[in-house]
Design goal:
Layout lengths: L1 E7 L13 E3 L5 E7 L29 E5 L3 H10 L4 E5 L3 H8 L2 H4 L4 E4 L10 E4 L4 E2 L5 E2 L1 H13 L5 E4 L7 H13 L2 E4 L21 E3 L6
Parallel strand pairs: 4-5, 4-7, 5-6, 7-10, 10-11
Antiparallel strand pairs: 1-3, 2-3, 8-9, 11-12
Length: about 220
């Protein structure tokens, strides 16, 4: 058994059933801690040995935020658009064709806060990473984590100490802790999970107004 931390803005706590949870704080967010069994990824591959960072200059509180969105498909482009309302954003994708296509869209072509790239070394400047890659189901109904593992390998190859890495893709309970936890601890990074809330076909409310559930390793990551 292990603890999984869920946090939401305090104004949304009334929407949750917290009868079995305990509040811990205070902080910018209220932390809810509940005990749940972990469901490890179905594959036994050790992804904790796949990355060696090239960049060792740590991120500090004075560092200028640069949000790197890994995977700029349907969900990724919404993340790029929404985060660029406040911060500089790098949209990264391994497909150069996809990068060329999205750079031609009016919304992104005229936004000076947004840059797109298929070049992995460009990720070394990022302070925060949002991983938004497909997590499909295998024939046996388990999660296909291959894209996610590849993305994690790419991120930890270039993430600096102090970086925050968040999985936006849909994963099973326990996979964030299993895939990101040991790497984040070893590299001096923060890890988290925040399921995407983009709803295809719906325009109201806009994505940036929809409350999101977030989790972090450790709870300090919320700050």
């Amino acid at each position: 058994m292990a603890s999984i931390i869920y946090t939401v803005p305090s104004q949304h706590l009334a929407l949750l059933d917290i009868s079995d949870a305990t509040l811990k704080g205070p902080s910018k967010y209220d932390c809810l801690e509940t005990v749940l069994p972990l469901t490890p990824p179905p594959e036994e591959e050790d992804v904790h040995k796949i990355a060696t960072p090239d960049i060792v200059t740590p991120i500090t509180q004075d560092s200028n935020p640069l949000i790197a969105v890994i995977g700029v498909g349907y969900v990724g482009t919404h993340l790029v658009s929404n985060f660029s309302r406040h911060w500089d954003v790098l949209g990264f994708d391994v497909s150069e064709k996809r990068i060329e296509q999205i750079q031609q869209e009016d919304e992104f072509r005229t936004n000076e806060r947004i840059k797109f790239s298929a070049q992995r070394p460009d990720l070394s400047e990022a302070t925060h990473f949002l991983i938004s890659v497909p997590t499909l189901l295998l024939p046996n109904k388990t999660v296909d984590a291959s894209y996610l593992k590849d993305a994690i390998q790419t991120v930890f190859k270039h993430a600096r100490p102090g970086a925050t890495i968040v999985i936006e893709s849909s994963v099973a309970i326990g996979m964030t802790r299993e895939l990101l936890g040991p790497l984040a601890k070893a590299r001096g990074c923060f890890a988290g999970m925040s399921p995407e809330r983009v709803d295809p076909g719906r325009t109201e409310p806009p994505a940036y107004l929809i409350p999101k559930v977030i989790s972090g390793l450790p709870c300090l990551a919320f700050r």
